[in-house]
Amino acid sequence: MKMVVLKVPTATATARASSQLQWRCSVVAVAPTTVFLNMNLHVTGRERGKWKWRVKCSSGSEKGVVNFGPGSPLRATNILVVGGTGTLGRQIVRRALDEGYDVRCLVRPRPAPADFLRDWGATVVNADLSKPETIPATLVGIHTIIDCATGRPEEPIKTVDWEGKVALIQCAKAMGIQKYVFYSIHNCDKHPEVPLMEIKYCTEKFLRDSGLNHIIIRLCGFMQGLIGQYAVPILEEKSVWGTDAPTRIAYMDTQDIARLTFIAIRNDKLNGKLLTFAGPRAWTTQEVITLCERLAGQDANVTTVPVSILRLTRQLTRFFEWTNDVADRLAFSEVLTSDTVFSVPMAETYNLLGVDSKDIITLEKYLQDYFTNILKKLKDLKAQSKQTDIYF
Amino acid sequence: MNAAASATAATSSVYSQTQCKLSSDFRSKIKCLLFFNDVHHRKSRFLLAPRAAAPNTGNDSKNENVGDEEKREVQKQQRVIQQQQPVSLSLDDVNPVGLGRRSRQLFDEVWRKFSGLGQISRTIRTDDQEALDALLVREGPMCEFAIPGAQNTTVLVVGATSRIGRIVVRKLMLRGYAVKALVRRADEEVVDLLPRSVEIVIGDVGDPTTVKAAVEGCNKIIYCATARSAITGDLFRVDHRGVYNLTKAFQDHNNKLAQSRAGKSSKSKLLIAKFKSVSSLNGWEVRQGTYFQDVVASKYDGGMDAKFEFTENGDAVFSGYVFNRGGYVELSKKLSLPLGYTLDRYEGLVLSVGGNGRSYVLILEAGPLADPSQSRLYFSRISTKVGFCRVRVPFSSFRPVKPDDPVLDPFLVHTLTIRFEPRRQRPVEVNATMKQDLRSFKLILEYIKALPTGQETDFVLVSCSGLGIEPSRREQVLKAKRAGEDSLRRSGLGYTIVRPGPLQEEPGGQRALIFDQGNRISQGISCADVADICVKALHDTTARNKSFDVCYEYIAEDGRELYELVAHLPDKANNYLTPALSVLEKNT
Lengths: 392, 588
Fold this sequence. Notes:
The structure holds 2 protein chains of 2 kinds. Chain A is 42% helix and 14% strand. Chain A is an alpha/beta fold.
């Protein structure tokens, strides 16, 4: 095991320095009609080149892969979760712990440490994907990596989502990680104008080319996100912001995603496959708001922002150099203008995984659970406050 | 860098029309990064010392970073919001510092929401995140693992660092239980293995004093410690005495708690009779009788006799012989319970007896005390072993003598009878060379107690099925384990004894499980599944007072299926344990 720790950082360090040892970024001519025009992914901050490119990973198994020979066999229960503090990540961690995995979480060093992960029984290791030298040590003794990290919207998108992921995948390859699970976004191949989706798509390809044993899971939307966005404001009688976009998203419960993920991981037939997880039904923003209103029993104070304004803002912010970051953030509005449907028929996937479709929670049920629980809690609070009134 | 340059050159023709735009794009990116730091810096300054900012205008200097057009856009939105809010003025409201701060907050809020619309992923602010987590992830009812009642329950996990114990601890934490862990040494290694909010108690199950501290404040115990070696001393200490020590300490703790409330522990047994002195035999009455009253039977009578006496060794012995066909002798007493106690709060009897291994019939007479003619008889057959043993007889195993009578109501029980009859006696295997006369008996009585009822199990013990143990040591290991199980069974605590097949270290929930009684299983099982059963059993009424074997489902060869085995697939969505256990025997 010592050997792994000592050897690998040097390998990756050289890889980073020359970007030649294990993989190359070759810039391939792309037809002008294709959509790589706006992309300028730079590999490291140090390299001052600017290019349009398509990622190609040539880290074949014949080169650069360190084979350490037969050692102590690695238990398949040793997994590393990257991004364990996120909405999906924490459900993955919980699910894994409950199923008896030994879970290690890679989290960024931060002043307020992610104590809840440790409270659940996971081991937390500190590393930063944007500092590749911190990665290798965290992979020692790991069988499977589950990568559900995504950069926060407020930080430059490329540090974690591209450079960090590339470093992580390289490192996983070099250290002989046996399975890599990557979460991507549905339709990411169709919307290269959105930086995050473009990066996810490139990462998918990079992972495929790396030769790692992997599963790519494309996701549509999380039900958990809707609570903060619509349900809470409606209950608090605050204004709800929505768009008039015709885009439909098949929201899914992150607990279901986590459950299906582990079924997929254990199924060796799914190695190298691309799976898309979608919820039972696709919803527009307006439909979700209406549903919330019905369940909460009160009308929402909806502020509808036309997608055209969002687009306009994005266009304008793109115009100025210093607001480009803002533009990146608003990039999803480009997708919103099209009436794309973020959904796929799941029958085949259910079949493949051996899951019953009725075990997957619907948005109606999910929100209903939420509102009944919350309204009950509010009622209890009211009852309590009434009781104290008596003493006046 | 070189590669990049050449590549750019090679493709420049293709991109010539976009080159200009692109380079500007890239330059802007660099600037943007620089600005990003700047923005960040300013933002944090605002947060830390808001008064330092210029308070005179509603739109603060942060707007400089945002495009002009966009600013107008946002202002528009902001105006909409402001119009909606009722206007009330006070001296505080016109304070310029306050105004500036509030308008800034408002702007931030509006901008956050606005920009949120155009994003795929959203950051939830930390305070929101906390509130949501509480409901959706941690203890809320929306959480997949949530168990009502978990929050008020403290579980002691004994052997928390074992293969099963580790997972048990995690599962308990996920479900919101308070967890105590008994470990032998608190090394860094051990502490790292356990979640941080687990309360660690250092101690050894073999040492009653340390165990005492461990059970302090606990509601339930999961025992997954096992001897590290097959050395007899280890086995005795951990698998046998360890369980005994814990049950004892736990009962003591329950009693102590009950005493502090000036009551009696609902988990302690009720003493019905204790045979410690000559006077304790008072009230017990020896009777004899026959089932047949015909002349033919009496003609072949060999006679019968029985006596109940207190010997010099300090034993209360009920002994005698019945040579009559259809004859019986019995020992009977009217029960006198302490004031305020009724048997309906108990679920059965436990007898501590010794003797020569005959079987007996326990008979309870129930009915209103005032009118003995209305009494009904209920019986249950018990078998004893050669030497001392404890026999559990649940009230549910008593059947009415007249089949039409209603089921036994323990509240009405007033007389207890132990009957010996020569019918249906099985020869004891101990000393085959000696000729046994099955018509004679000897029963040494130590005590008779009533077992408390309860809904849930108090003590989950992970034992073993004996599979996968090295054959030369199997006998010894099983002996210690069974002794441990026995001491748990007679403690009066609600128990669940899980006997898994050989443990495998793999994720749980993958394969169907078989729950069975009677040492018939042949497969292994994953540690995680065993852990799941332990945790589920804590609140499952069907798990109380049961022992069962569990292993993976297996496919029997054709024609060799001995039993129909019902498999249960463990899944979080369904509760597999209740249906699986409800078909199994209780008090096993």
